[in-house]
Design a protein that fits this description.
Helix content: 55-70%
Shape: globular
Strand content: under 5%
Structural class: mainly alpha
Oligomer: single chain
């Protein structure tokens, strides 16, 4: 099964071009716009992620199908309630995935790719991980409760397509009720900010209500500074994809105690024995 997001790629590329031209002819003093090398890197990461994702999707389908087969329930796709359950369950799974990938370093090593750009525009949405394997466990419970695998994959694609449009500085805050319920460009600018007040905030996919419920929400206030707390200063796709794995390996190799090795892998990004003490 080819994910629906693959069919949206031509539209993504077209919209990136449109947004880039909008900065060229309608400049915004507050927006950083586009930089050619940064955009090429983001697009390269997107191409690589899709090349890797296609064969990996087969593994994902097998795992979903196996759990769906042993599930004591098989929810009917024809029921509207199944789709309602799927919408909320998938969005909650995404929240759990996203939060874990910011708080556990070995998972952050995969997700950090998406945060490595100093710019925030539609091309940033395409800067995706080349190690999607870390995401699988977070959606397995949906198959186990009896949601058909094809429905899970479809809803994941819907979520990713929605999130593409969050990566822009060209959209200000929306109508207050929309901002309260849904993830918006304003909320996602906060998520991509490296400002101390913005770190580890606004993990939501389509909805922002999980962040409000679990107290990880932060409204947009000060101007977001995009990128990492320690930027990697490279446009090399291989280094962008794997730099944090290499850094974690160096820390683990240099640690003297097994406890410290575990901390470097499973503690939050930036963890060190000194920080723990």
């Amino acid at each position: 099964m080819i994910p629906a997001v693959v069919y949206a790629i031509p539209a993504f590329v077209l919209l990136v071009v449109v947004e880039a031209f909008s900065y060229r002819f309608l400049p915004d003093d507050d927006g950083r716009g586009y930089a050619v090398r940064d955009t090429v890197t983001s697009m390269s990461m997107g191409v690589g992620s899709q090349v890797i994702a296609l064969p990996w999707k087969a593994v994902t389908v097998v795992m979903y199908a196996a759990l769906f087969t042993v599930s004591p329930w098989h929810l009917p796709p024809a029921s509207g309630w199944t789709w309602v359950l799927l919408f909320f369950a998938e969005d909650l799974a995404y929240y759990a995935f996203h939060r874990a990938h910011h708080r556990v370093r070995v998972l952050w090593a995969s997700h950090v790719v998406h945060h490595s750009s100093l710019h925030f525009n539609l091309s940033t949405a395409l800067r995706q991980s080349w190690t999607p394997m870390t995401a699988l466990p977070f959606w397995l419970p949906l198959a186990l409760v009896g949601i058909p695998p094809w429905m899970i994959l479809l809803e994941q694609s819907v979520s990713l397509i929605y999130q593409f449009f969050l990566h822009t500085e060209r959209v200000d805050k929306l109508w207050r009720p929309v901002e309260w319920v849904f993830n918006t460009p304003s909320h996602h600018r906060v998520h991509h900010g490296s400002n101390r007040v913005y770190l580890d905030r606004n993990y939501g996919g389509i909805l922002i209500v999980w962040d409000r419920l679990f107290r990880t929400f932060e409204p947009e206030g000060e101007r977001a500074v995009y990128g990492l707390t320690r930027n990697i200063d490279t446009y090399n796709p291989l280094r962008v994809a794997f730099h944090e794995y290499a850094a974690a390996w160096r820390d683990v190799r240099g640690a003297r105690r097994w406890r410290d090795r575990a901390g470097y892998l499973f503690g939050p990004p930036g963890w060190s024995p000194r920080a723990e003490g």
